[in-house]
């Protein structure tokens, strides 16, 4: 019998809303950024804009389909990925991050929450780099690789200490809140292009 021990469940989903819905969300967030232009919030972001408040709170009720989508995805992930059974109640908070070329997010996690995620509302056409990178939480992974394997380039799968995902518009990622991750800067043919992400936390 083989069991997969110490695995980290990460969900990669594709969101396919009705035509124009993601564009409507992007336009709303651009307007919100203008209204909050005097407030600079810095978390893991280096450059770009980080929204204030809770996008799934009482003050933002413009897109109920979006909140419902995230809630259903979290419930499914909690069951299939984390093995939660029965009733599952949680508080949900969300915020937007708008990054331009050269902006990035330093390594961080979302403790003390349970489940975190990111929904990519807008991704620049022709974007290069800009990956979200998940870091393997296990330590000392490279210490036991035989030199003969290194010389032949035959590395075991656990030798990878990070996994990168290049996002597309409509990608929805869910992962444990304790998992360290960061976001690389991107370039695009249009130097004014922006990547718009809604990130969220579920806490119990």
Question: Could you explain the architecture of this structure?
Answer:
- A six-stranded antiparallel sheet has the order 1-10-6-13-4-3. The protein has a five-stranded antiparallel sheet with strand order 2-5-11-8-9, with no helix packed on it. The protein has a two-stranded antiparallel sheet with strand order 7-12.
- The protein has one domain (11-138, 145-203): Jelly Rolls (Sandwich), CATH 2.60.120.620.
- The protein has helices spanning 21-35, 64-80, 147-152, and strands spanning 11-14, 45-46, 49-50, 91-100, 104-108, 115-122, 128-129, 132-135, 162-165, 171-176, 181-183, 186-187, 194-203.
- With 204 residues, it is α+β, with helices and mostly antiparallel strands.
- The chain contains three helices and 13 strands.
Task: Considering the chains and any ligands shown, give keywords for the structure.
6-stranded antiparallel β-sheet; alpha+beta; 19% helix; 204 residues; 5-stranded antiparallel β-sheet; Jelly Rolls
Indicate the CATH class. Answer: Mainly Beta
Q: Into which percentage range does the β-strand content fall? A: 25-35%
CATH topology: Jelly Rolls
Task: Specify the CATH homologous superfamily.
Answer: q2cbj1_9rhob like domain
Mean pLDDT across every amino acid position: 92
- The geometry reads as globular
Total number of helices: 3
Instruction: Please report the total strand number as a whole number.
Output: 13
The SS-based structural class is: alpha+beta
Q: Biggest sheet: strands side by side, in what order?
A: 1-10-6-13-4-3
Count of distinct structural domains: 1
What series of H and E elements makes up the topology?
EHEEHEEEEEHEEEEE
Share of helix among residues? 10-25%
Radius of gyration: 18 Å
Q: What kind of sheet is the major sheet?
A: 6 strands, antiparallel
Which CATH-level-2 architecture?
A: Sandwich
